[in-house]
Design brief:
This protein is an alpha/beta fold and about 150 residues long. It has one domain: Sugar-phosphate isomerase, RpiB/LacA/LacB (Ribose 5-phosphate Isomerase B, Chain: A), CATH 3.40.1400.10. About 45% of the residues lie in helices and about 15% in strands. It contains 6 helices and 5 strands, in the order βαβαβαβαβαα. Strand 1, helix 1 and strand 2 form a beta-alpha-beta unit. The two termini are about 25 Å apart. The mean pLDDT is about 95. The structure holds D-ribose (RB5). D-ribose (RB5) binds next to helix 3.
Amino acid sequence: MPKRLVIASDHGGIDLKNVIIQELRAKNIDIVDLGTHGASSVDYTDYAHALAEDVLSNEGMGVLICGTGIGMSLAANRHIGIRAALCTNSYMARMAREHNDANVLCMGGRVVGPGVALDMVEIFLNTEFEGDRHIRRINKIDVSPQ
Ligand code: RB5
């Protein structure tokens, strides 16, 4: 479990975000909600950047949800040190941690249902990075040296 867990969505992901928050809090897992907090149309980029900065400054982990998950992952991955994985099933969520050391899970609120989404979150939070050869590979993700 990360030392800090944050979640954010746009209007296309808010219903799924609320389901995830409710489920985690029922299990006494702390999760900080960075918005959006209403049904009004907002820009997913604002939430992706806010969450990415929070994850980096607190060495935490995050969950980002928009309609497809695509816009959130594109924006979050612009931050050096963020490895945001857009996942649609449990296998992808597990591999995102084991092989990619992903620190942000992205998903589409209009793509996956709550059952799949909750499974992905649980797996993402409870799966360790395997390290070894994968360290070399993730160190080659950024084009500019860190
Ligand atoms: C909003 O309609 C939609 O474009 C957004 O949620 C997301 O899917 C973008 O990638």
